[in-house]
Amino acid sequence: MTNPAAKLRRTLANQAKRAAYSPTVRTLARTAITSERAEPLRRKLAAKGLDGHLRRFTSECLPKGMYYAKLTIDDWQKFKGQSFQLLQGSTVVYGNEIEPPAKGFPLEYRNIIVTSSDVSKFRLSIDSSFSLQIGHGAFTTPQQVSYDKQYRVKQHGDVFYSLRGNTTSPSKLLITFPGFGPSTSRISYAVSYLKALTDADLSDTLMVCFQDRYLAAGSYMLVDNGGRSLVQRVNDVIQGFVDRYGIAADQMLFFGASKGGSIAIQYAEHHPQARLLVAVPQMNLRYYLDKPFFKDNIFAQEGMHSVPQPERLIRSYFAEGRTIDYFYTNTDEQSNHSLIELVEDVPGLSKYRVDGQHGEVARKALPTMLGIMRRFLADRTDSATTAVDEVHCFNHDGARALQVRVDPDRTPDSAANWYLEGTLGRTRFLQFLSDHDLPFVKYTDERQRLHPEIDDLRGLRSIVAYDETGGEWVAPLPQTDELTEDVIPRRTHPIATLRLDADGATEYVIVRDTIVNRFSYDCRRGTGDESRIDIHIVPDIDAFDLAEVRHRTDARFVAAMEVLETGELIDLMVNRLFLASVCDTASIFVHDLALSESATQVLTEYSAARTEAALDKAAATPASVFSQMDLDPAQASAQTV
Amino acid sequence: MAVQERLLTVVIEATEPLDRESTTYRRLMAARLRWESEFTVHVIDEPLTTALITELCATVDSKYIVFVRQTHQISATYLPTLLKFLSTRTVYLAEPYKYTGAIPKQIASTSIDRNYHYLRDTDVYGVAFNVGRLGDVLDAISDVDRTGVYLAYRLYWSINSVTPLEEGYSVSSDTSSAIGISPQTGVSRLVPLIPTGSSPMRLHLLRHLVLFLRGLRETERTDVTLDHLRGLASTFDLTKNLDLAEHMHAFECAWIRWLESPDTKEHLFKQLSNQDAYLVFDDASDAEHADVVLHRVELGDENLTIAKSYLPRKLRPELDSPDHYDFYRRPITTDSVILFFDRPMQADDNAEHLYAHFTAEHPEYTGAYFALNPKSPDWERLSARGFKLVPIFTPEFYELFLRSDLVVSSQIFNLRHQGKTLANSRFVYLQHGVQLNDMSNWVASKFFDVFVATGKVEADYLKTVAPVETLNSGLPRLQTLSRDSEGSRDLLFMPTWRFNLHQASPEHFRSSQYFQAVNAVLTDRALLNYLERTDRTLHVKLHPNIEKRAAQFSFSRRVVRSELSYREAISAAEFVFTDYSSAVLDAAFVGTPIAYYQWDAADFFHEQPYESRLDYRSEGLGPVFTGHAELIEHITTERYAEPDPEFARRSERFFEGVDTERINDTIIERMLSL
Asked: How many structural domains does chain B have?
């Protein structure tokens, strides 16, 4: 028998909870409680053990009908390496690829945004038991709480950051942005705290370490949990510091690696005189996030794609001649998107080519990056002179390798990176060198060789070292004909962005590792309305009548492309066109009889992978990404001519 | 009534008379205080063999057996600890930490790493075996040599790892590393090829094979077959751990690589300036294309030729890679770091003399350094002479070694730092003296670009193993050595020393033939009378290894212990005699009469690692005496002072090719052209 009093109490309690968690109340409370003035109150609540409640209560308020969800997958061992989706009804609300969680912890994905609080409406695409918690407040972990405490990350409205250094009267501003952590980390939201920088380093500088505390693993600080743009809110925070301390326009440095690099590029927009220090930033988020780890989570956020892409911003920075230190690797075409590898003659740009995978670059070049920061922090411009005692060149199938012996008495004492330095017009180019067991020997390893088709061997000038303290050593490179003997002439490669309205054959180059491949493409708006791009691979783009073809298809876009060198990377070219079109599907028509067997094979695999990915999706999603893959040139001709 | 079984039998191997005053013996006996009823001591006066061990296993009445060689060392509580451990359990074996040098005070801090396992002596000594189980193994595997019994035992019973007791046992010298081990005739396998995945065992087995091959280079004859050696290398994947063996036994490492991959016959051994030296292993033909045949080895019915070939540098693909630094690609210039050194504690040898000449004649070479221990008495002297000194074997020294373009020394140390070795960089070996013993196997295994010889006789001998590297210039110290004995009344005696007296107790040392013979000279009444009558003094220059026992010798007013350097002592003497020291050749070089007193000539070379190359009687530069009386007579009759045309002729031939005035310049020309 129901107790009416108890029922009434429950009803009142629920109403009170609803009222308390209502957007209006929470927004007001968040503003009040996260303000600096409320610090004593926060400490008092924390002392009473109410910090968890406070955190949930002040976490970002989602629009009506949206909730935070925490997904726990029980049988992850069985599905390691497989993709999965969490479906709400027939809609994918989250997806990822299963990786093992931290030892001793369950596999959790926190802060998935859903539109129902009824757990029974959710299912997993894999046959694993799972649990789902849904609520109004954001989820966290004890490890994250402790991390935030350790690094003094504080919430300021909807923006989170930690402050270091001179917080009273700084004359400089160092702003850092974080990269992605592992998808299963217990600490989903890190900060780029740069522990190596000491209070002494930061004596005149306020360091602001932003936390990308949105969605399950960050949103490039572009959107909040509700999918609303954050850009203005973050810009306001930065401008607030500039205004409060009267920071001069050229006394700011924006730093970030990987995702953090892209964010740094975003938020440097209104600070043209600021220095920009980035490592492996993603230039095109749609292109980079088009992979299982991101496809069904961050990639699906419309807000990610509606802001100017980092590529567009940095091109404008190049044009402005901003001071930019950019670390990259040729093994990272997904981040580079064919820009940094080829760009040259940009004033103010120093490009540091580090070998290795995406994740290795910032780690390897850390001494240099710390050195750049410390030089900025201490207004250092000094440089020490050292000498190259020996230089030896090696020819490896056209690529050039180098070994130098530097003066052992004039080298950095602390951790340092060595580079081969040259110029590409007004741009500084620095090729990372390997340390030999012999401390005075530096050399290019297999991945650091110079390639005459993209590297200006005649422009190489010196060997330089940067150490983590900010020291710079420069040694002129002795002239040696060995380096430039019999090299093929260098070509200047176009770096214009890929356009859907190319309006005529346009050259486009893709670099991956040591492969530099050129394509000629043309792309137009189709006359149809199907969310599809037709891509025609043709032997001679000038002889292909794209204007005619666009009238014969129902696709939204039509493109033609010609392979100018080998067929390598053809799948990447196709994919870039496809992703640029923002269409659901693509059709590939191969007209080029001379297309190599390997290129054909690559395209087949690409198409199959795309189709498979599409078939993995739930019924309500588009049936397939690729509706057609025609590898019969005769048939292709028949279809299109 | 059944005989009560004891816990342990301690077998002391004493091929020399048992030294009951030695520390080792006293420490063993001390265990009787507490454990007398639990162990017996059994002394054997012949070398331990597998057959003898088998016999002992069958006859001893104890549960365990341990073998101790009387010249080995044990920690103070070695035996009580062993007994205590064995009294509470039944085990296959128990063993202490094993060393080749001094037992450290903090035994437990010895790190049990790859290096320990590799260097650990694997002979039977110091380890307590379960008598029954050892008997079982020897029943099954009776054909291994004693040196392989411990390993065979562990393989047989699959004893993959052993935690040592916190006690130390030292075999006291690393002679086996220098001369290897040589199984008895008839032994056709080193160990049974029972597979094991144990890393320590594989390291032990590698060491065993390395030492066997080292020994085989001496004997050139074995009943162990090539097939067995190949099986050993492949079963235990021995090439994987060669990094541990490389710096001491590069020759044997090349051999093991060939055993594992017989198709690759040439193995790079030493980089040189214009070509490289390779070891060539050939069991099919006779290595007829090789430049020098180093060994013809009989393995059972098979023959193996090991030769040395000088081959073009272009054969080495690594020279085309920037991750390989070629020390030879960098020319020696006036800016080059050139590192000279003699012994760490004692200069005044060939490197010092060459350094002095080089820096005086070639001041434009600003990077010449002389390395020495700052505690050496020579440090101050050389510092005062303006030598650019660097403390040897310090980080500063190794830093200079890394940077150097050339190392020049009278010593061969296995320098190795950050990938640089004497195998891949330039090294001029000046030698300490002239080689009178046949050390060709040692020479063949060392790295040098130039080997300085003194005279045609030595050069011809060295060219049999190093035709390209040998330079007959003469030793640098000879250029400035002068006979300063005009009117001298000093005689000089320079006895060498004996390996087997290393650990001898004072009493045992006093009773040794060595001490008796030397001290008899020092105390000879006729000699003392002669010295007194002619107002002469006999200076005795003791070998550094005997210095600590100097007090046992009977010095007197006329027989004094020389405190002078070798050079000063030789220079000032009117007559020099020795047993086997090559230092007397310095005296002969400047025309000072010499003589040899070899009281133990018949046995000496049995106990030394090397054989005599020189027939002292027919080729020596002075008379040879084996009897005490003959020597005394030679001196007291002053026959030593009479010119002898035969020795003058021999001396001329011996030093042929040495241009005294150009010794240093000849070496410098060669070293700067490397």
From this structure: 4
Give the model's pLDDT for residue A627: 39
Q: Which candidate, B111, B120, B174, B179, places its Cα nearest to that of B150?
A: B120
- CA distances from residue A609 to A297, A602, A606, A625 in whole angstroms, order as listed: 19, 10, 5, 10
The pLDDT score that the predictor gives to residue A640 is: 30
What residues pair up with A177 in beta bridges, in sequence order? A256
Q: Is B330 on the interface with A (CB under 8 A)?
A: yes
How confident is the model over B430-477, as pLDDT tens digits? 998 888 878 899 999 999 999 999 999 999 999 999 999 999 999 999
Give A305 to chain B, closest Cα distance, Å: 44
Q: What is the per-residue burial (b if ≥16 Cβ within 10 Å, else e) of A529-559?
A: ebebbbbbbbeebeebebeebbeebebbbbb
Cα dist from B316 to A49, B240, B268, B271, whole Å: 71, 21, 9, 10
pTM: 0.84
Q: What is the mean pLDDT of chain A?
A: 88
Largest CA distance in chain A: 98
Cα–Cα separations (whole angstroms), residue A529 to A249, A550, A551, A558, B487: 47, 12, 12, 12, 121
- Coil/strand/helix, residue B350: helix
Closest partner residue to B419 (CB to CB) among A389, A437, A445 is A437
Would the ipTM clear 0.90, i.e. be above it?
A: no
CATH fold group of domain A142-377: Rossmann fold (3.40.50)
Residues of chain A with CATH 3.40.50.1820: 142-377
Judging contacts by C-beta atoms under 8 Å, the chain A residues touching residue B325 are 403, 405, 436, 438, 441
Decide if B111 touches A, using CB distance below 8 A.
Answer: no
Cα B311–chain centre separation? 30
Q: Which of A394, A395, A420, A480 to mutate to test the interface with B (most CBs of B within 10 A)?
A: A394
**What residues have CB less than 8 Å from B375, skipping those under 6 apart?**
B345
In this prediction, residues A228-249 reach a mean pLDDT of 97
d(CA B459, CA B466): 9
Q: Please report, rounded to a whole number, the percentage of residues in chain B having pLDDT higher than 70.
A: 97
CA angle A143, A145, A150 (to 5 degrees): 90
Phi, psi of B301 (to 5 degrees): -90, -5
Residues 6 or more apart from B256 whose CB is under 8 A from it? Answer: B206, B209, B210, B213, B233, B238, B239, B242, B245
B312: containing domain: 193-321
pLDDT on residue B171: 93
Q: What CATH number belongs to A384-484?
A: 2.60.40
Q: To which residue do tokens 């029943």 refer? A: B139
Residues B337 and B315 placed together within one structural domain of the fold: no
Q: pLDDT of A314-336, one tens digit each? A: 999 999 999 999 999 999 999 99
Indicate the residue type of A185.
Answer: S
- Using the Cβ of B320 and the Cβ atoms of chain A, whether some distance falls under 8 Å is answered with yes
Contact A438 B330 (CB under 8 A): no
Q: CATH number of the domain at A506-640, out of 1.10.238, 3.40.50, 3.40.220, 3.10.50?
A: 3.40.220
- A259 pLDDT band (50/70/90 cuts)? very high
pLDDT on residue B166 = 96
What is the DSSP secondary structure assignment for residue B294, as one 8-state letter? E
Which chain A residue is nearest to residue B419, measuring alpha carbons?
A437
For residue A520, give Cα distances in angstroms to A507, A526, B110. Answer: 4, 19, 69
- Identity of residue B553: F
Q: Is residue B184 part of a domain?
A: no
Whether the pLDDT of residue A127 is over 50: the answer is: yes
Dihedral angle sign, alpha carbons of residues A478, A481, A483, A487: positive
Please return the burial class of B312, using the count of CB atoms within 10 Å of its CB with bins 0-12, 13-18 and 19+: exposed
